[in-house]
Amino acid sequence: MRIGFSALLCAAFALSGRAQQFGPMENLAPDIPTPETVVEKMLEAGRVKPGEVVYDLGSGDGRILISAVRDFGARAVGVEILPDLCEKARKRVKALGLEDKITIVQGSALRVNLSPADVVTLCLLTVSNERMKPVLEKYLRPGARVVSNQFPIRGWKTDEVVHVREGTMEHTIYVYTMGKTK
Fold first, then answer.
1. Phi, psi dihedrals of residue 160, rounded to the nearest 5°
2. pLDDT in tens, 86-119
3. What is the pLDDT of the chain when averaged over all its residues?
4. In the 8-state DSSP scheme, what is residue 99?
5. What is the pTM of this model?
6. How confident is the model at residue 137 (pLDDT cuts 50, 70, 90)?
7. Comparing C-alpha atoms, which of 99, 57, 100, 62 is closest to residue 79?
8. Which among 15-24, 103-112, 133-142 has the top mean pLDDT?
9. What is the pLDDT, as a whole number, of residue 28?
10. Domain membership of residue 166 as a residue range
């Protein structure tokens, strides 16, 4: 069953409105912005289609969300644990007039219901991906795609591995489809 985007927004706002305290174990990665060229390749590799819902876990300043909406016609939800990054992303989204298509949730990726997602993007450490596996497996339906920048999800079978050179650094993008991960 597909959930309407307005219901998705209500659920996201309800979650973000709660007073939540997160311990250091819930912070899954350092704040390192993904280069714009890598953002585009991640969304291409995830085969994002117009009207789909993209969740970005550890969404930082919202760059993946903004690209998903503007360049791919998706709707997007960002989950970010750091309040200052949530505020920065919300300001960017508002300045671009995309509030009706992008929601930023301040919260832990380990606690979010991902069931509306068609595509989940992340750039978490390998150990953090291990911790996210049960959440992804619990909520994502068969056919949903998971796109991980730099760090594989151990034990899952990749659909595709994409290499992107950005300056002197090579990024590796791992793409998984739920139902084909084993």
1. -160, 150
2. 999 999 999 999 999 999 999 888 889 999 999 9
3. 85
4. T
5. 0.83
6. very high
7. 57
8. 133-142
9. 52
10. 5-16+37-177
Whether 72 maps to a domain, the answer reads yes
Residue 118, SS3? Answer: coil
Q: For residue 82, give the CATH number of its domain.
A: 3.40.50.150
Q: In 3-state terms, the chain is what percent helix, strand and coil (to 5)?
A: 35, 25, 40
**Which amino acid appears at position 54 of this protein?**
V
The SS3 call for residue 15 is: helix
Tell me which of 35-39, 78-82, 144-148 is least confident: 35-39
Name the nearest CA neighbour of 85 among 46, 58, 57, 112: 58
Mapping DSSP to helix (H, G, I), strand (E, B) and coil, where does residue 61 land?
coil
> C-alpha angle with apex 139: 138 to 142, nearest 5 degrees?
95
Overall number of domains in the chain: 1
Strands 160-166 and 169-177: antiparallel
Distance in angstroms (rounded) separating the CA atoms of residues 124 and 132: 9
Predicted confidence band of residue 138 (pLDDT cuts 50, 70, 90): very high
Residue 22 maps to a domain: no
Q: Which residue, among 36, 42, 27, has the nearest Cα to 80 in the 3D structure?
A: 27
- CB within 8 A of 95, min separation 6: which ones? none
Residue 175: in which H helix or E strand, if any? strand 169-177
